[in-house]
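Data availability excerpt. The first of two example chains:
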Amino acid sequence: MCGIVGVTGNDNAVEILLEGLQKLEYRGYDSAGIYVNDENGSDYLVKEKGRIADLKAAVGPEVHGTTGIGHTRWATHGVVSVDNAHPQVSQDHRFYLVHNGVIENFKELKAQYLSDVTFTSQTDTEVVVQLVDYFAKQGMNTKEAFLQTLSLLKGSSYAFLLMDSNDPETLYVAKNKSPLLIGLGDGCNVVCSDALAMLNVTHEFLELQDGEVVTITPNSVEILDREGNGVKRESFHVEMDAQETDKGTYPYYMLKEIDEQPNVMRKLAQMYLQESGKTNVEPELIAAIKAADRIHIVGAGTSYHAGLVGRKLFEKLTHTPTEVHVASEFAYEKPLLGENPFFIFLSQSGETADSREVLVNVNAENYKSLTITNVQNSTLSREATFTMLLNAGPEISVASTKAYTAQIAVEAILAKAVGMAKEQVIAEEFDLRQQLGLVATGMQAIIDEKEEIEDLAKEYFVDASRAFYIGRGIDHTVSLEAALKLKEISYVQAEGFAAGELKHGTIALIEEGTPVVGIITQEKTSSLTRSNLQETLSRGAKVITIVRQALAKDDDTIVIPDVDEMITPLLSVIPAQLLAYYTSLNKGLDVDRPRNLAKSVTVE
C-alpha cells in the first residue's frame, strides 16, 4: 500500500519527489523519505516519521539533485520509525531502495546470505537492498545483482525502485503484483505508483507487467520481460487535470468528493445512456453476460458493499442469479461454479491485491470478466476481458464515497443493458437516464443541507463509543457501508445489521444513549424496520431515521427525495457519509487519513 516516486534528469528532483509523495500520501502515511544525487558526488538521504509535511520540514535548502527516489510508507514489517522508513540503504551506502509489497522469504534470505551484515531496520526491504550489495561485491554489475536478487524472492508482491550512487543517473525498476508506472517526460523520466503523482511532469505513461525489469535514464527506458527479452510498448495518455487532485477550498478531500457525487451521476448518464433509452455499453459485453448462467461480483470493503447493491439490480433487471464475494475469501475458498459464469470485479483503484488474485484464477479457467474501475489502464482493467470506467475523477480520501455511488450507478446501467437484451419488461421500462437525473438533484439537495447533518453528528455520534445502522433488503446493504464509513474515520465501533436480526443477539448491545440509525426506503419493509427501531427506543437507544419522502412521517430525522426503489442506495448513503465526516471532524481527527488505513490495498 506504500507509495513510490522516482525521477531522473530534472534539476527540480527534490520538489518533484516531495510533491509526488504528497499526492500519494493516501497510500500510506506512517513515515516517508527521499534520496537524491546531483551527479557530482553529492547525495542526500532524508527520512522522517509521520506525514509528508514532516518530511518536507526536514528537507533543508542544501538538499538538491537531478535524480532521486522517494517513498511514503504503510508499515508492514517493522514498527513506525525513522529506521524503518524508506529508502533503505546497503551497509556501504552504495545502494538505495524503495519498495511496495511483501517479501515472504526475507528471513531465509537474510540467514543464508547476509549473516555478516549489520542491519539497521526491521524491514524486509533492507534484506533486498543488502542482497543487491552482496551480489555486486561478487563482481556483478548493478543490473545483474538486481536480477539475481529478484530471482531469489519467493511468492512475493513487490514494486522496487533502486538507485546506485556510483551511477546516479540510472533508476532500476521491477514489478510483481504491486502497481508501478513509468512516466515519459521532456528530457527526464519518472516512476510512480499512481499517475496522479506525476501529472505536473507528464501525462504520458508506460504500464508495466508482472515480472518485468526496467532500466531508466533521462533519455531512455529499457524494459525486459521475465525471460530477459526486450519489450516495446506504446505509452498511454492520462487526460486527468493535475488540479483535480487538489482540495481547493475544501478542508478535506472527503467533503470535496462527497460534494462531487451529483456531477458524477450526470457524467455517467451522459456517457452510458441515450435519450432513446438505449445504452452505450459494449455489445460483446452485453452478449457475454446475457449468455451467463450466473454472475459473480467480487470486491473488497466499500466495493464489496457496492456489489451487494449490484446483486439486487442484476437479479431484478436481468433475472440472472447473482452472487457477491469478498475477494480475499474467494481467492482461497472458491465456490462451486456453474457451466458459464461471468465475473464482475469492482475496484476504485483497479489494483486491489485480493481481487487481482481472484482474476488470475478466473483467467486461468478462461472465464469472461469485467472490471468496473475508476483508473484507466490499471491492472484489473488490463487483465479482465472487458472494462467499464467510473470516470468519477481521482478519489484521494481513504474513505471511499463517490466511487461507491459511481459503482452502483454503473452496475445499474449494465443491468439495464443486459435486461433489455434479454427482453425483460422491467428493464425496458426502467428510465434510468431520468432516474439518475433525479438522483443527482436529490444528492445536491441533501448536500445543501449538510449543516443539519453536522448537528446530528455532534448530538448523536461524537461522544458515542458504538453505533448501529439497520435496514431491510437493499437498505441493509447500505447499512453495512454506512457503518464502515463511520468506523473507519471516526473510530466509533459501528456495525450494520439486517433490522430483523436485532432480536437474534445484537439487541443485547443496545443501552441508554446508543445511536441507532434506521434506513427506510422500501415500502414493503418500512413498517417492519420502524417496529425494530421502536424496540431499540424502548431500551434507551437514540434513534435517527433516513427515510424516502414517500414513506416519511412527521418525526423522521432525515428525509431524502424520492427515486425508484431500486436505486435508493445512491441517495440514502449520502447522509451516512456526511454523518461519518462530521463525526470525525468534530472529534478532531484526520478525516482523510484515518489511523492504520491506506487507500489502495495492494498487498494481500
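And the second chain:
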Amino acid sequence: MSKLSWYAKRLKAMSAREIAWRASRAGEELLERADPTGRRSRIGRRELDWASMQERFRSGAGRPILLDRARAGAIAAEAPEVVDDLLVAADNAVDLRVQYFGYPAVQIRRPVNWMRDEVSGTIWPPLPSGKIDHRTAAGDAKWIWELNRLQHLPSLAEAWLFTGDDKYSEAVVAQLDSWMEQNPPGVGIAWRGAFEAGLRAISIAIALQGIRDSAALTQDRFRAIVGLLAECGRRCWAQRSLFSSANNHLVGEMAGLAVVAILFPELPSAARWEKRAVAALCREAGHQILPDGVGAEQSVRYQISTTELLVLVAALLRERDGVAPGELTDAIERGSRYLTALVGRSDPDPNYGDDDDGFSLKLGATAKRGIREHLAITAAYLGVDNCVAVVNLDARWYATLRERSGSTATAEPGGSFYAADGGVVVLRSGSRRITMDVGPLGYLSIAAHGHADALSITLSSQGQQLIGDSGSGSYYGHPEWRDPHRSTRAHGTVCIDRVDQSVIGGPFLWVTHARTSVVAVDLDAGVVDAEHDGYTRLDEPVTHRRWLIAPPDQQVVLVVDLVTGSGSHEITTSWPIDPALNVTPDGDEHIVDRDGIPVLQIAQAGLSPQLPERDRGDTETQLGWSSRTLESREPAWLVGATFVGGVPYVIATVLNSLENNANRVTGLVVTHGKGGVDVTWSIDGQHWLATIDPSAAGAVNVGSMKMPDKESADVTVDE
C-alpha cells in the first residue's frame, strides 16, 4: 500500500475536529524538528534544589513506594522460587541478552547502540523522530521500541533489592547513562510517539525508586534521569493520542504522566500533570473497560495491558492517599470478573483480537502474561482471593501495598454468560466451553486491534482448545502475515465471495466495519441467534445470520448459517483447529484427533454439494497457521467447506465431541422452505430434528424423532 493511499484511508476515519487537531499537531512537530533535543522545554523556570529533592526521594517522603528492600525480603522469604527466576532475568538484563516476541534471543553488542536492531541488522537513523516513517522502514519498529522501553530496568532494581549486589544497581544507571547520551529528546525511533515515552517513563521511574539508596545513583545522575522523566511527562501530555487514536495508547501515555507526577511531586508541573492524567484515566477506564468488563478494543491481550496500567496508577494513589479513584477500581474489578468468568477453572485463554506480547510494567520473569497471571495482579490490588489466579512476582509486589478497606466479590468461575456490551457469549456444559463473538469489530473508527471475526465460534473441552483463533501473526516483521491473520477466513465464521466482512485500510486501520446485531440469547437452552451486515456492501448484498445451538445436555453442537439477500454467492465456512491437533479427511467430513485419538467430528451440509476446505501451513494464501507469539507461527489445520448457490442459502455444521469413544453423527441434511430451516441427523441410533423459524427471534426446537418415551425425548430449546 502506498503512503498516499494509507493517508487517504486514514483521513476517512477522522472527524472534521480530528483533522483540524492533527493539522495543528503537524505545526508543533515542525517546531520539534527545528529543536529536536528539546531545548525549548525546561523542568521549570526556577532551579530545583536537587540535593533536597534526592534526599526526599530516597526517604520516600511525600510519595508512595512500590519497590522496597523490606518488602523484597518478605517476598524472598515467602516465595524464593520466583526470586530465583527473577535473578536469571536480571543477569540477562545486566549483559543485555534480550528476546522479544518470536524472534531469537540476541546479545546486544558493546558499546551499546540503542538504535541497532540486532535481529535484522537494521540501524535506525538518529533523525528527529517526526521524520522517521516506521511503517515503511526495513526493520521491525516494534522490536526496537521494545528494547527502548527499558522494561528490563525494574528487574535489575528488584535483583539489587533481593541480593544487595551492586552489579544490578550499577547496570541500571550505566544503561541509562548510555541511553540518554544516544537518545536526546525528540531524536531517534525511541521518541516516535508519546506512548513509547509513557511506557519508558514507567520503567525508569519504578526502577529508579528501587535503587533510590544505591551509591550508584549520584546527584548528577539523579538530576539527569529526573530531567528525562520530566521530558517524557511533557510529551505524554503534549503529544497524547486523541480522537480515533485514543485507545490503549492514551491510557499508556496518561499512566506514564501520572507515575512521573506521583513519584516526583517536586517537579514544578507535577500537581497539574497528576490532576490531568488521573482525570483522563478515570474517563478512559469507563470507555475502554465496558460495563460488562469486556475490553472495548475487542482484544483480550490489550484489555490485560490497559487494566494493568490502571492498576499501577490506582495502587500508587491508594498507597499514598489511602484511597484510589472509584472509576479506576471499578474498571479493574469488572474486568477481573469478566476474565475470571471467561477462563473458568481450567479453560484455555481465548485469543481474540490482536496480541502484541507487551507489558505495561514488568516485575517478573515471565515472557508472556496469561490471563490467570493477570488475575493474580488484579486480585492483589482488589484484596480478594481469586481461585483461578496464578500468583506471580508482579502480584506479590502489589500485595505488599496498602490493603483495600472493605470487601469485594470475585465472579464465580464456570457457567454460561452473555456480556452484552462487549458482545461475548460463553456457553458451558461440563468441561465444554463455547464462545461466540456477537460484538463490534473494535474500538473507535479505526478499530486498530480488532479482527474480522463477527459471529466466530471457538470450542474447548477438558481444558484443551479444539477450535480457536489464528492469533496475530505479525505487526511489522512479517507484513505478509498481517492481513491473513486478522481476516474473516482465519476465524470460525463464514466468508462470502472470498472477501472479508470488514474492509482493511492498513495494518492498524479498518475503513468499513461489519455491524453485528443480536437477535436472541438463551443461556439456559444454549442458543445464540445473531447476524451482521458486513456483506451488504457487495454488488449483490447479503446478510449473514447464524444460530449456535448447544443444549447443555447434548454432546452435539449445531451451527446453522443463513445467507439472505440477492444473487448467487460462494460461501465458505472456516474452523481453525488448534495446532496440537491433527485432521483426517473422511469424505466431506473432518475428523480431528489428538495423538491419534479422535476428539471432534466436523460435518457440514448445504443446499448444494460442498467443496471441502483443508489448509495447513499454506505460504501462498497464508492460511492454516496459528500464532501464539507475535512474529512467530506454526502450521495448524484450517478446515471447512465452500458452497455455491443462490440466496437464501443455508449451511448446517455439526461439531460432535468424540471424546470418551462417543459415536459419530451420520445423515446430516439441511432443508429450507417457507416454514423455516430443518436440520436432521442421526446418532446413537436416534434421529434428530432441529427446526428454526427465522421470522421469530431465537425460535429453535431440537428433538428426537424416534424415542420410546416421547415426553422425555422432546427437548424444546425455545418455544
